[in-house]
Amino acid sequence: MSSTRENHLKELPIESHPFKPVLPSNATIMMMGTFPPTQDKWAMPFHYPNFYNDMWRIYGRVFFDDADYFRVGDEKRFDPERIKDFLSQHAIASCPTVKKAIREQGNAADKDLTIVEAVNLKQVLSQVPKVDVLFTTGGKATEILMDLLAQEQDKAIPKSKMPKTNQHIDYNYGGRQLTLYRLPSTSRAYPLALDKKVAAYRDFFQAMGKL
Question: How far apart are CA 143 and CA 121, in angstroms?
């Protein structure tokens, strides 16, 4: 890292992830993203809070054939309690890969995110003993999990081993036999048509026995 960039980072605030993980005791799969947008972009105080991120529209279409299933009437927000109930009923956990980070450009873009502290994955996994599948919602979250695996194994893992979008790998971590799936980002900045994102998530949830 250049000294100029180091000095720039020192001037920026370190932010903690504002949302706690959602860890239903019955969860069998766990969704893992990175960091939410700044609070002025929130439509609710919950995971994937930006109204213009399509995560909860995709869930609505996949499970209920209704993109607005989790929306509150005609308002530009989603219903966090309805989402939490849904996740619990379908045994889906949601946990960010990042605990603390610096926004280099003040935005939510993963490419501008410097990770200060990653999730304590062992601690989280101990709370969801039935989880055997992790699924990421983009490249940065996948990179972080691969870095955690490298630390666990105390050896470098080549980039070529990282799963590409819609692929999966064995992910044996902390004595747990897990599988890591990488799904498309639900951000509208990610260049993939919404219908194709919906299809990718539907295929995944069907494979997981959730549909």
Answer: 14
